[in-house]
Design goal:
This protein is an alpha+beta fold. It is built from nine helices and 18 strands.
């Protein structure tokens, strides 16, 4: 029986892109990531890794993979998510599930956000001498980053997962990211009392109450700008976006219910609990006048902000390898959950964030070799001798 061999880098990329692994709160779009996880386990086992696959307790049919090679404690964890966002077929010029090479680009859904990262890692490992490895190397592949981040929330289920360092391969053009904002998606639901529009006293108009709530939240937005600021971020204050509103059903009926969907992005140092206090305080006068009229509902569990000290060994090494200064970004990743493992953590991976969640997502082929060299330098610095 012949010994299994790794596919080529292009073939690994091809096979990962070909397996749909969309995560979505809409069941019509949502896929299991099991086939992607199984592919990664198959390839990593060829390289001598021991693989453990856990089905999520919170979402049956979704899976996390942890692959380990090497004895002892500490070492380096390279982490990524196996899911992608949904796609709009009408806006794609290529098949999202077929890796297409054209104009020095590799097109495909997940080419940089972020299934392709695993092909980079496996290829880099295949080019290093396993006999020279002197610290553990771990590869983590999570589920559902693009929706709930439930995969990252369940990594503590893997026994003895205590790396010294963790690098999350989100697309940063291989520039290290040491901090990012958090993310909260909240619903404010106003419940009034419907009635005939000819007599406003017959009801409580939820749209009118929502007008008061929005006015209070606009003041809170301004307070955020003055109370919290970090010049490391291109948008240096917490943001609040009014993304969706709906209320009422007819012009001649007093509106009985109105909903507003908010997106809030807190800075490091502004906790989720503190934000909820701000939201409740902003609306407490309205709540006092109309008890039980205002309900705050989370669309998903909040994602805290993330920050790693810029003088940490990992950030300094990443800056040296990438020849770029570490940065803070406005989007969020799984970093705050993996940092809870007790390791130095940063975000750095192939491809540009400008391509993430876009039609015709692509990887520039000219970036492949430099990225491989940087990943090998990172691995050699922490886990290999010679």
């Amino acid at each position: 029986m012949s010994t299994p061999t790794l596919p080529s880098f292009f073939s690994m990329y091809q096979q990962l892109i070909a397996q749909p692994s969309i995560s979505s709160i809409d069941p019509k779009w949502d896929h299991s990531n099991q086939k992607v996880v199984n592919l990664l386990a198959e390839w990593l086992e060829i390289l001598g890794f021991e693989c453990e696959i856990n089905e999520l307790q919170s979402q049956p049919g979704k899976f996390n993979l942890l692959a380990r090679r090497g004895d002892g404690s500490g070492g380096l964890l390279l982490s990524g998510h196996t899911d992608t966002v949904p796609y709009d077929a009408s806006r794609w010029n290529f098949d999202p599930f077929k890796l297409t090479e054209q104009d020095n680009r590799w097109y495909g859904l997940g080419s940089i956000d972020m299934k392709g990262f695993f092909a980079f890692v496996i290829q880099a490992l295949s080019e290093l001498d396993a006999a020279q490895q002197n610290k553990p190397v771990m590869i983590l592949a999570t589920a559902d980053e693009e929706t709930t981040m439930d995969g990252a929330r369940e990594v503590s289920r893997f026994a003895n997962l205590k790396p010294d360092y963790c690098v999350i391969g989100e697309p940063t053009d291989m520039r290290p990211v040491y901090a990012h904002k958090g993310h909260m998606s909240e619903v404010i639901r106003i419940t009034g009392r419907s009635g005939h529009s000819s007599d406003p006293e017959l009801g409580i108009n939820a749209i009118e109450l929502m007008h008061e709530v929005i006015s209070a939240l606009m003041k809170l937005k301004e307070e955020f700008k003055h109370k919290y600021s970090d010049s490391s971020f291109s948008v240096p204050h917490p943001t609040m976006n009014f993304g969706h509103i709906h209320g009422g059903d007819n012009a001649n009926r007093i509106c009985g219910c109105c909903e507003l969907h908010l997106d809030i992005r807190p800075l490091p140092g502004l906790s989720v609990d503190e934000l909820y206090v701000h939201l409740h305080q902003a609306t407490e006068n309205i709540q006092a006048r109309y008890p039980g009229s205002i309900e705050l509902i989370s669309l998903h569990h909040p994602i805290p902000a993330f920050q790693q000290s810029t003088d940490s060994a990992l950030v300094q090494l990443a800056e040296k390898i990438s020849k770029t200064q570490a940065q803070a970004v406005n989007y969020c990743t799984e970093a705050p959950f993996l940092q809870e493992l007790g390791c130095e953590t940063l975000v750095m991976g192939p491809g540009s964030i400008r391509q993430a969640h876009q039609p015709d997502e692509y990887l520039l082929t000219e970036s492949i070799k430099p990225t491989q060299e940087k990943l090998k330098s990172l691995l050699k610095s922490y886990c290999f001798s010679g």
